[in-house]
Write a structure and sequence with these properties.
about 75% helix, mainly alpha, 8 helices, globular
């Protein structure tokens, strides 16, 4: 992902040029959705959170600092909204989660991978893998976004892949 272009679009949006929102949305939606899905494990809820994230973003747009990582900001909003949604749903459910009945058959490859990621990787490792694999960011771009050394990001990514590969092999994938 070209972070310079993304930042240029962000600045244009702050200047009130909303005709650039569609392009901004298309460049960022996969990462935002992935951040939400990793928490919720539910496509419909993750899609709702995706929309809420962009509404919140547009609401806060004038006050956002231009030097901040806008993708990391969007993913953090999605993650927080997803956590809140999960807590809300947990309070509403009793002993049986009716929404999950029959869904085992519907699980696809991505759902299995996200579920396994959530189980075996810590939050930082999940974020690095999603930024690299889904958002197609380079390790250097991720290091810049997260404010960590390149070596740390590379090591964490490779370590996360080993853990993920081992866990998926154990599940017969």
């Amino acid at each position: 992902m070209d972070t310079k272009h993304l930042n240029q679009l962000f600045i244009l949006l702050q200047e009130g040029k909303m005709e650039y929102f569609d392009e901004f949305y298309e460049l960022t939606k996969r990462g935002v959705f992935s951040a939400s899905y990793a928490v919720l494990q539910n496509q419909d809820l993750a899609e709702n959170i995706l929309q809420e994230t962009y509404l919140k973003f547009l609401e806060k747009l004038p006050a956002l600092k231009r030097e901040q990582s806008i993708l990391a900001y969007l993913m953090k909003i999605a993650q927080n909204l997803s956590i809140n949604e999960k807590k809300k749903n947990r309070r509403l459910s009793y002993d049986v989660d009716v929404s999950q009945i029959g869904k085992e058959d519907e699980k696809n490859e991505d759902a299995l991978i996200y579920e396994t990621m959530r189980k075996v990787l810590n939050k930082t490792e999940q974020q690095i893998v999603i930024l690299h694999a889904v958002e197609e960011m380079t390790h250097q771009e991720i290091a810049n976004e997260l404010g960590k050394p390149l070596g740390t990001i590379t090591w964490a990514y490779n370590n996360a892949l080993k853990k993920l590969r081992k866990a998926l092999e154990n599940e017969g994938y």
